[in-house]
What we know:
Elements: H1 7-16, H2 36-53, H3 58-65, H4 69-77, H5 84-93, H6 104-108, H7 118-130
Amino acid sequence: MGQKFHIWNIIVEVLSDYAYVPDMEHEGKMPTAITVEEEAKRFGNLIRTRRKALGMRQEDIVFATGVGRRYLIDLEAGKPTSWIGPALMIARHLGIEFVDSSSQDAENSGYDYDLPELKDEENNSAQAESE
């Protein structure tokens, strides 16, 4: 059986190629790193906030993506042992796309990083269509 990777281990490995950590060793102190657990909580919060902004229930995501409800609960709670495949499927279903923020394309992409605001926008457009 092939080796399985946890989502946060992969994210940390990939992001370490792009992250800049200043050399503070000469001052006798090391920079504080964001832990995998903190990133897991931030990502889980992003998923939960986006789902709620879209007016979706957990059951809606489970049905649409085929992931188990327990997985989604753990993902939204920031449990760092979630697998990357289902997490990315859920993110994609919620309209969350990942870009390399260090690239020029990211600046020109036109992505709206205020994703949780979408619910209000959708409600306004739905009201406008019904009038």
